[in-house]
Amino acid sequence: MLQKLRREFVVITMALVGLVLVVALGSTLVSSYMNQSRMVYSALNHGLTRDLNFTPRFGEPDDDDSRGPNWLTLSADVSTDGTIIAKSSFYIDPNVLTKIIAKAITSDEDSGHDSTLHLSWMRMENETGWRISIVDTQSVDAALARQTLADVVIVIVAMIALFVIVWILSAWIMKPIQKSWDSQRRFVSDASHELKTPLAVILANTQILLDDPQMPSETRTWVESTNDEASHMKALVEDLLTLARTDEAQADGGAKRILALSDVDLSELVDECAMEFDGVAYERGCSIESDIEPNIHLQADRTQIERAVRTLIDNATKYATKGTAVRVSLKKADKHSVLTVNNASSPMDPEDLEHIFDRFYRSDKARSREETGGFGLGLAICKGIIDAHGGTIAVTSTTQGGTTFTVTL
Q1: DSSP state letters, 204-249
Q2: Under a CB-based contact definition with an 8 Å cutoff, are residues 390 and 301 in contact?
Q3: Top-tier CATH class for 259-408
Q4: Residues in a beta bridge with 408
Q5: Is the Cβ–Cβ distance between 380 and 321 less than 8 Å?
Q6: What parts of the chain have a pLDDT lower than 70?
Q7: What's the pTM value of the predicted model, to 2 decimals?
Q8: Domains in the chain: boundaries
């Protein structure tokens, strides 16, 4: 979980800084492009009004506009069929000139740019047909290409440097969180282990007392109550130990060390769990329908995966509307195995969906523990098991579709 939190911190930080960097460099690139476009447009306009005998020289101020450099511009009077009547002295390859004039007189627009020829053009009707102004934009295009390449290199280098810095920084930030998390896990695990011994003694002593036939009925009632509560507490301690083990399996990639991984026939396992709960579902007023694709195998801890599947089916039958069917499906999707457990029930509140996998969270707060038989840890344990195996679990709940848990392994 902490590694996931660290990765999310790195991704979010890099995304935000990268976005700012891209916007800043992109703004300068767009500004340069617009500035160059304005200058080209100005040169084209001048080319339409100049005398054809005017010979511009790049870098010298224009008589009409002393604010900036002149451009290598060719102006030509062209007949409606594309014949060049007259043109200025700036040389352009005749084949290239023919192509750009043909494009200019056939275009639906009065101006345009040919990126392959690096020429921009603008046309205006006159008494002979068209006055066409052509500007050589090769230097402009090359400058913009160099700036774009430079900006891309800057972004790549900056993001690599940022990743190294943020990764190191995240390790430093995560140290106190890691320490707190480890302390919490040790406390839960140690406390649960320490509670097992006195609970075992209490259960043993209450059982001895219950075996005494001479015990008064009033006393037996109190002893039975003590025995029931001790049993509930034992179940809670075992759940806490399971959570501690799944937490340890997720921490620092310890799943292989904590989980007893082996080849598991998931199809057989899910089918057995569905059949096992068939009688339970009948008692709860519903039924189970299964659609299980055969021969789906994976490397997993069979005991843990079985517990997760049982928890989902048990939860589905527990809250299913009477007279409906709980649907259990297992399919192969590419390299993943997808298990879905669906029941027809009232849609869950969106707030409950956000916390459904939280520990000790109970969506139906009106029900007592005796009614539902749990402590609000079942789905938290289920998620911990799935996470420890590198899988994902999600839930949706709608009026039409009911509640569906989807496990991907």
Answers
A1: HHHHHHHT-TTS-HHHHHHHHHHHHHHHHHHHHHHHHHHHHHHHHH
A2: no
A3: alpha beta
A4: 338, 392
A5: no
A6: 1-2, 53-71, 90, 181-182, 184-185, 187-190, 192-193, 243-259, 359-376
A7: 0.52
A8: 2-143, 259-408
